[in-house]
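hi!! sorry for the late reply, been swamped w classes. u asked for the two structures so here they r. pasted raw, havent cleaned anything up. first the sequence of the first protein and right below it the tokens
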Amino acid sequence: MKRRAMRSRMVRRGNPGLAPGTLKAPEGAQPSSLSALVYGPDELVAIEALDLADLPALRERYPVVWVQMRGLGDAELLAGLGQAAGLHRLALEDALNIPQRPKFDDYGDHQYLAARLPVSEDTLQTEQLSLFLEEGLVITVQESTHDAFAGVQERLKTQRGRIRQSGADYLTYTILDTLIDAYFPLLESAARSLEDVELEMLANPDMNPSSRLHELGQGLVTLRRYLVPLREAFAVMQHEDGDYFTAETLVYLRDCQDHARQAADLVDSYREMSANLMNLHLSLLSQKMNEVMKVLTIIATIFIPLSFVAGLYGMNFDRDASRWNMPELGWSFGYPAVLGGMVLLAGGMLLYFRRRGWFK
């Protein structure tokens, strides 16, 4: 994962004290557009600009209606969509409040899921996705105009798999499966980054990977904040009473939950790897410091007796006062003898240190 968009941005949720269900577009939100895909086993119609007045007729004519709203700039359009589909105002408010913690809510006649959708494979750039599910109706509300489900639309157009033969519950599973699959390229990018840092540390112990490991750790924390609640939401969807998911689709939904659990487990593993690499870096620093301290200790140890000898012969006692006062000072070779003795002393200590293995 690259540094860009490493931390999730915090957005103020509007003025305090507003009535529950008040719809207000987020600041700087992208313009809204409304489109739809309506289909059955033998027919598929793409509607580029959906008129909400046509929604009831489309639901009566086609087994599955998939309404896609991209951009949150038009709160009135979302309110009209909610009124036409009978969506709860609190769910619509959650769709406009970004960033929203991934969650699942059951409102009786429809269900609501909020999640974070990755839009890049190597940067932690995500957008909010809101999904509404009713009988024969799926509504997705994206924060941006990015077409995140082009693969699903292509499968619908080419009649690949069982998606055209199934109902809105299987379409919901397909969207959720695409959502969770979008996290794995990010996890692969994180794994590659951790591997690169490890190889660089082993090849060059002097490098400082602290900033990179910190960024990776922050990104993994953010991913965990997205994935763990999403995994819990999938679990609630499976056990929630209702007729939205058939028994066959629940099997696929459990597989989707397994993928979410796997992604969350990978995040925890990579966080542990990041912590281990930081500990390895600190250990290498400590080892390097120990090497420096060992060299300094050897040098100090060698000079301690030499300093004693130099200090001893620098006490300036009067030789005329006593024959025991520094008799070596009167020798012709006294100075060379003392220097030679100091050299032999230092050499002997170095030889002793080497035999003890202190230089390894």
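now the second protein. again sequence first, tokens right under
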Amino acid sequence: MSRSDAELKELIERALEAEPGVDASAIAVAVTDGIVILGGEVPTYSARWMAVRTAERVVGTRAVVDEIQVRLVDDHIRSDADIARAAAFALEWDTEVPDGVTATVENRIITLHGEVDTPHQREAAERAVRNLMGVRGVVNVIRVRAPVA
């Protein structure tokens, strides 16, 4: 079933409104040829992440361009050192994240490093740090080891 861009835009806007943790009024939606462009400002990385995933789930979405900016409110601002410390604890305490996964932080963006056995472990590491206060973004460069034959 092919949807018009206007129909897809309306469906995405409704999906964003229904998504807890996303302030749909802060997010602009544009659609051209099934390519969704999200813009605006949100107060947390997790809200940005959820908005993008919500748009991706709407049938008819061919791709999503994420132009949403994370603008931390004053009481959410943390130093890179505080975020790194929180990320280290989050990775250590998550039972799905194996030893050897590490994080670096620059400009409030966490980069995850290391090697894991499964894609699930790679995703678990990202999930462990995504909602930390003060984070503006997460880059996951964790490598999944090739299975042993």
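hope this helps!! also noticed smth abt the second:
The mean pLDDT is 94.
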